[in-house]
Amino acid sequence: MAEMDQKSVPHVLLFPFPLLGHVNPLLQLAELLCLSGLSNVTFLTTKHHHHRLLSFTDARTRFSSFPAFRFETISDGLPDDHPRSYTHIIDIFTGVRSVMEPSFRELLFSNYFQSVNRPPVTCIISDGLMSFPIGVAKELGIASMDFRGTGASFLWCCFRHLNMVEAGELPFKDADMDKLITSIPGMESFLRCRDLPSFLRGCRGKVLDDSLKIVSSSHDLRPNATIINTFEDLEAPILAEMRPHFPKIFTLGPLHALLSTLHSGRSISSNNSLYEVDQNCITWLDSQQPNSVVYVSFGSIVMMTHTQMLEFWYGLVNSGKRFLWVIRHDFVIDKDESFQVPADLTSETKERGYIVEWSPQEEVLAHPAVGGFLTHSGWGSILESMMAGVPMLCWPQIGDHHTNSRFVSDVWKVGLDMKDTCDRLTIEKMVNDLMDTKRDELMRSMEEISQLARKSVGKGGSSYGNLEALVNRLIAYPILF
Q: Keyword Hydrolase on this protein (predicted)?
């Protein structure tokens, strides 16, 4: 390597979209590249998320063993006290377009990331929600890759949006949400209107146009390759439909499990969390019976009203099951200082429940006391649940959740779908279905999927081999692009 011309030495820049669920998987990929022998890796994220990484994770320590790795920051254009939650997603997109995009161009064109000991950037791996890094890469004559922390199925839905419009399936012409969508190859027999991504469900006029611009932007500028956090055996039929339309697809998931493989099996479960983790919940789980606890978490950005929270609370309590529930400080939309939890819920929760602001999720799912996962159906949570072998009850809300939950329940059959409902009777029934009535059949499917997931990230597995192929391409650039 020392004898190579500096311009031929690979230098990979990773650039996530500024939301927690997007920062984590790209940081995992950055560590995978470092562990695979790429010495020059730069991780560019907002000052806000960089501060949280340093405050709540051991990222600085983990990456200290890679001398040529660099954390770099960029402004998102938002004030320090901005909540940066999904309810303010328009602010985030505005900041990306008005501040991050011109700043990113300036950094790349000024060779900011190059130094005496560091070669210029040879490849940009950017989040699929941002197309401008691909345009910058093309102008500079370097490689670009589109990173997707979501599943292939969701990406395929987005890719086919124009076909849905041409077929008259978008926008919806009636209120029949159970009508099948027939213009997405590989999904014709089971995907309904209600299973489409949230920004396509019921959108009309300008709202639909704006949503389509977001999901289709990366197809206007074609990257050299697409990296997806999935594994071949999970989404093989959809990947087969996609590959003729994409230059190159690398499936590397589950990323967190592949990272564990490269760490010789050591889990790094909570170390990328951008929230302060409450480890006391593990002590509580230690005192519970095997498969007796429902783990409840709706991720880092989903919010609900007080009314919805009470419905879930009563549903969980009335199910008679023990539960561990993650309730973030910003979880409730309509905050009311006068709100008080009903006394019966308080007493029942003390008896059978445990509530934390944030948990070490991978560790929780792997705990023998956990028998089911009530989730928002975020892709990272689904993969973590599959690796742990824990069946799911899905309550999808935004983004890819609605599509994911349909695959969980009707394709992979490793969980139940509770979309478009939020009442205590339904929640109580479906929690009992998850933990008792339908548990055996869900576990049979889950055990098979878990085995395939573990195989994919092991030596000789598809994701393991794809990581090697990706690294070889990055080292050989520009020959293999």
A: no
209 is catalytic: no
Decide if 22 is catalytic: yes
Considering the chain, what percentage of its residues have pLDDT values greater than 70? Answer: 91
Rounded alpha-carbon distances, angstroms, from residue 134 to 51, 53, 128, 261, 382: 26, 26, 10, 30, 29
194: region left, alpha or beta (phi > 0 left; psi from -120 to 50 alpha): alpha
Give the whole-angstrom CA distance, residue 285 versus residue 369. Answer: 6
Q: Which of 48, 50, 127, 376 is catalytic?
A: 127
Q: Describe the strand order of the beta sheet including 143-148 as a list of residue ranges.
A: 70-74, 40-46, 11-15, 123-127, 143-148, 225-228, 249-251
Q: Which fold has domain 280-455?
A: Rossmann fold (3.40.50)
Same fold, 6-270+457-476 and 280-455: yes
pLDDT-based confidence at 481, cuts 50/70/90?
low
Q: Which fold has domain 6-270+457-476?
A: Rossmann fold (3.40.50)
Give pTM, 2 decimals.
Answer: 0.93
